[in-house]
Amino acid sequence: ELGSYEAIGAAEWLAERGAAVCFVTPLRAFAPRLEAALVTAPALSRLRRAAFTLHTRAQVLDVGDDAGVRL
Prior knowledge:
Helix content is 28%, strand content 17%. By secondary structure, the protein is α+β, with helices and mostly antiparallel strands. Strands 1-2 form a two-stranded parallel ribbon. The longest helix has 12 residues, at 5-16. 8% of the residues are buried. The model has no long low-confidence stretch (mean pLDDT 88).
C-alpha cells in the first residue's frame, strides 16, 4: 500500500463483490497521499458498510491456509 488510490480501488472492488477486506498499511493513516483530495473519508465510509478492517502501522507476516492473516 503506497498511500495512493490503487489500494483503495482494489479494496472497494473486492468489497463490492462481497469479499472480506483486511486493509493493511505500514503508513500512519489510510491512504495519506489522498487526504488533501478529500478522497479518504468517502472511501472509508463506503468500505465500512462491508466486511472491512483497517490496520495502520502494520505489516502482513503470514496468510494462512484458512485465509487468516497474521500481522
